Amino acid sequence: MRGHAFDGTGDHRALKLPRPPSPPASAAILVLHGGRADSLEPPPLLNLPALRMSPFARALNRDPLLADVLIASVRYRLRGWNGHRADPVRDTRHALEELRRAAGPLPVVLVGHSMGARAALRAADDPQVRGVVALAPWCPPGEPVAHLADRTILALHDEADRITSATGTWRYLARAHAAGARVLGIRMPGGHHPVAVHPEQPSLVRAMLGRKYGEPPSLLHAAEDFGLHPVPMRSLAPDVAADPAPRRTAPVISLGDRRRRGARLQVL
User: Fold this and answer.
1) What gap in Å lies between CA 237 and CA 88, rounded to an integer?
2) Could you give the CA distance from residue 211 to residue 186 in angstroms, rounded to a whole number?
């Protein structure tokens, strides 16, 4: 992998695929770790951003209701986003193509952290992608959203995050919602920028796939089932341009508002 990381040629495999689940997979989840804004170096062998996603992947693997869901990850050739090159997006598209060849046209949810969340959101126009779980995503102004129509976007962010902007995330969700995406934001108090693993997150990911994999899910209903309170998007992004469909409300919920208390956050 390291030998082919600089030019994108050779036999670089973008998909890190574990052994197939039994029974054969009915859907897939691809996990994308974070990185740097700019770096043309290959990821090191001890890759801390990838290690930070390990607890999330383990939580998904332990969920018995995801037993028939293939859980894999994306390997990056380079550590950085690198401006207009958007290298992690290319790697994600390659991984999706490799997944198609390996397992067929499965419905897919992309789960990304920070730079990986930005790459997942960019690659969500792939026809297999049902939605994206964006953990502390990097959403700079001007990120495209038109391609997210009919996709489901779940974003989790701590408003105290000093690495990526939660306000930027809420603005992005409001724009994506206006473009036709189904969106849900969750405030993650105490998570800061490292990912916070919460007991209900695998269930929300499962809801994105739909009970029959491919049905349009209702994340808001799923969140309400878990005792999460919706908060109007406009209260978090009041300066976003007016929604052309004001009858639609993009909800944001806070884990601090849960009716059921006592669940602990695990910081990666």
Assistant:
1) 28
2) 22
